[in-house]
Every structure is written in C-alpha cells, then in structure tokens.
Amino acid sequence: MTMAARSFTVRHWFADGVFRTIVRNASYLGSGKLVAALLGLVALACAGRGMTPALFGTLVIIHSYANGVGALVKFQTWQFIVRYGTPAMGRGDFDELRDVTGFAFGLDLASGLVGLVGGLVLLPFLADWFDIPEEDVQIAMFYCLLIPTMTAATPTGILRVLDRFDQLALQQLVTPILRAIGGAVSYFGNLGFVGFVVTWFLADLAGDLCLWVMSVIELRRRGIHGALRPGLVGPGRRLPAAWDFVWTTNVAHSVWAAWGPVSNLIVGAMLGPTSAGLFKIAATFFDSASKPADLMSRSFYPEIMRLDPASRHPWQLAIRSAFVSGGMGLLILLVVIVGGEPVIGLVFGKRYMEAYDLLQLMTASLIVTMASFPLESLLYMAGRQRSALVAEGTAAAGYALLLFVLIHLFGITGAGLAYVAGVSLKALFMLLPTVSAYRHRQNLVSVMTPVKGARA
After folding, report:
1. Structural domain of residue 86, as residue ranges?
2. At how many degrees (to 10) do helices 53-73 and 94-126 cross?
3. pLDDT exceeding 70 applies to what percent of the chain?
4. Nearest 5°: CA angle at 360, between 355 and 365?
C-alpha cells in the first residue's frame, strides 16, 4: 500500500463520527491520566525516598490488600450500566435507566459491605503471610475502611452513559494530586510510615467520593430523579438477564482485576516487602504506559453499544481502534526502553534500580495489551459474557500458577516473566471467542431495540 493510500485510509477512518467520538473521549481521559501518572510518580517518589524499601513495601502491601479484597468482591456495575443504560437512554426510557442505576447501586452497597467485613476479619490471620509487621496490623485494618468506596463503580457508569468523559478526566486528577501533596508533606515533614498511610487513605477516599458528587450533579442537571435509589429484587425482575450479566462479569473481573494487587501480595509473601515495592514500581510504570488502551476501551464500549452488532460497523471500529492503540503501544515501548532506567534512578534513587529490569520484561507485553483491548467489549456487545469469563478466568489461573513457579525458579525476575505470559494468555483466550462471534454476527440482535416483555 502506498503512503497516499495509507493517508486516505486513515482520513476515511476519521470520517466515521463514531470513531471520532471514541478518539475524542479517549483524549479527554488521556489528558487527565497523563497528568495523573506524573503526579503518581511524584507520590511514589516521596514514599520511596521517605521510607526504607521495607517500609515502602509494607505500604504497598497494605494498599494492595484493601484494593485486592475490593477487586475480588466488586461487581462491574459500570459495565452493567453501559450495557443496559446506554440503550435505555437511546430509547428515552428513563424508567428503565432508573432500574439499571438503582440495581447497580444496590450491588455496590452489598458488595462493599461484604468486602469490608471479610477484609477486616481475614486480615489478622493473613498479616503474617503477607509479611505485615504485627505493629502495623491495626493501621492496615484502618486502611480497609476504603473497601466500600473502592468497590463502587455506579457513578463511573452513569458518567459514561451520560457522555461526561470530561468529568471523568477531571476526577482522575483528585487522588494523584492529593497523594502527591500529602506525600511531599509527609516527606519534608518527616511524618514517616503513618503519615504516608494516612495520606494515601485520604487521597483515595476523596477521589472516590468525588465521583459520586459528579454523578449526582449531572443526574440532577438532566432532570433524572431517583436514579440512585438502591434496589435489587424489583429492578432485577424487570431487567432481562440482569443477574446473569452481573454475576458473569463480576466473577470474570474479580479474578482478573485482582491480579495486580494479588501479584504484589504474592511477591511480598514469597520474597518480602522490599521485592513487593520493586514489583509495584515496575507495575506502576507499565500501567502508566498501557493507559491509552484502557482509555480507548472506556470510550469504545459505550459507543459500540449504540450500534447494530449484526453489522460490520462495530467490528471495523474495533480493528481501527486496535490499530491506533497498538501503534501507540509501539511508540511507548520505545520510550520506556530508552527512558525508563534514568527516570527510575532519578525519581526513586539507585536502590530501586532493579525495578527497571522488571520493567524491561513487562514492556514486552505492552503491544499485546494495547492492541487487544477491544476484544472484551466485543464479547459483551455480542452477549458472550460467559466466554469472556472463561477466557479471563483461565488466563488468570495460568498466570497465578506461573507466578508461583517462576518466582520459585527465578526470584523477582520470574514475576516479570509470569506477567508477560499472563497478558499474552488473556489476549489469546479472548481472541478465539471474538472471532467466533464475528463469524456468527448475523444472529446477533441490537440492544437498542426494545426487548419483548420489557416495559413499554
């Protein structure tokens, strides 16, 4: 293909209004994430330099424990709201939209309470295995009070359905700004370990509460009242296949979303807090580098839910979005390889340089991560959430097994190798059912049309 032909093809892609919307919304989120990533590095740098590697690792383990428990019990209510709320908005059915958001809110409340109780009860028994010193168990239990807000995804789904990605971009800055400011205060004020724990706690809490405030304001501005009245039985009865969708996505994402925090816990348990801190630094760099794929996914999913899955349009959008994201992944990969070592050395100090070796291993999977982001959304669009569950569950199980085996064989380097393998397994297991769904797309029905038996 000539350069002129390639240029024409790319211009043709941007002639598609839906593709432009996906890129626009991703750019909103990306602008916030870029600043958030830089502020996150400042916060990590303050913590890394303000404490010993062992204490920094303990902070990471405490945060990972609360985050991991939240991820395990969390229902992906934002995906449920997008899946059912977007079509309801398109049809102008605000009663159904209230059922969707109320059902999601009820799930968030229930899962948050279960996570909080479970996390507090289990922590004293697991603290020794996770290498949390006995004198730090109480402050770790205090940090677990964040679990209910960590599990709540209803406001995120509301803002996405209402196309307020600009609000989401602003909210993304709240936690990293407060964590960076608090980290600087704790570092220069010599507040020590407790100061950093309290700083991270307050920053996370403020960021979570900000989402709720934004969603309430936006609902009121649009005149949508009663959307946050929690309920499970009535809305669950009126929404077709609601329970099947939320349980399937909950199990799938609980397994996979927990792999970051659980990885830190496993590394800490097998190799100690210092190694957990090194793994956290490498994972933070990798997550920051792969954020464009996450942002594209958050923009991509709501848009394809407005399209007919039996047509080629959403599938073509997936290929175009994957191509753009994969191209960005290649550029980011080169930047990380060239600039990762000096940045880690400058920000965290020479004692954390081993994290760069991990980062080099993990970036090998960057292009795979970024190019494969549309697969999960396509499976949900096609009503194949159970296929996504099998793919994510199988990949997570393979990753966990490899993590234990490779850490035992190669130490912290094995953790990086397992990470690459886990990402690759997930992409492969997602691709197979997606190809099958595309081949049988003529049998798919658009969710924009009313479902038989639904409210008129």
Report:
1. 3-441
2. 140
3. 77
4. 125
